[in-house]
From TrEMBL:
PANTHER family: HYPOXANTHINE PHOSPHORIBOSYLTRANSFERASE, HYPOXANTHINE-GUANINE PHOSPHORIBOSYLTRANSFERASE. One of its GO terms (cellular component) is cytosol. Its main location: cytoplasm. It is found in: Cytoplasm. This is Hypoxanthine phosphoribosyltransferase. Belongs to the purine/pyrimidine phosphoribosyltransferase family. Residues 13-159 form the Phosphoribosyltransferase domain. Its EC number is 2.4.2.8.
Amino acid sequence: MHDDILEVLISEEEIQEKVAELGAQITEEYKEKFPLVIGILKGSLPFMGDLMKKIDSHLEYDVMDVSSYGSAFVTSGEVKIVKDLNTSIEGRDVLIVEDIIDSGNTLKYLTDLFKYRKANSVKIVTLLDKPEGRQVDISPDLAGFIVPDKFVVGYGLDYIERYRNLPYIGVLKPRVYQK
Ligand SMILES: O=P(O)(O)OC[C@H]1O[C@H](OP(=O)(O)OP(=O)(O)O)[C@H](O)[C@@H]1O
Ligand SMILES: Nc1nc2[nH]cnc2c(=O)[nH]1
């Protein structure tokens, strides 16, 4: 559909295969527990929806909306809560679901917050990990794919709110944002 402006980096089939693998790992990890799975809006929505169906054990889920100040490409490191959780996390085994970890600022803020709120454990699953973008010392417990230091879109990830509904991950050709 978007051949002229996007290069496919990870296909729909590759994503779905990886989501099933991650779901199986999470099932194993949390089978004796009742984790609170927290999806971070808006980007994690497609991943969260697919992943939940691949976890074969009891869990509770909630969502939280946070945003980072900055431009589409550069984060300022400052994170603010747009919508908080409805669930208390004290004593809970929390699994944060993200679409991407880049600078690490969002997940550093969230893991610190959940520990401060006295979660029993806090782990991170992310579909994409961009280690070259890292500004703070944080790494996911589970990651689907390592991506290069390029701005990626699709499967929840946007460029000025577009492309979130693509079923695959792509890299926008520079002319799209050089306009
Ligand atoms: O590691 P970082 O550099 O903090 O980047 C990762 C965050 O950036 C994106 O969210 P964004 O703030 O763009 O909001 P969105 O999910 O609503 O698009 C993404 O969904 C992560 O939450
Ligand atoms: N769409 C998008 N959002 C991001 N937030 C942090 N890194 C990225 C990225 O590569 N693409």
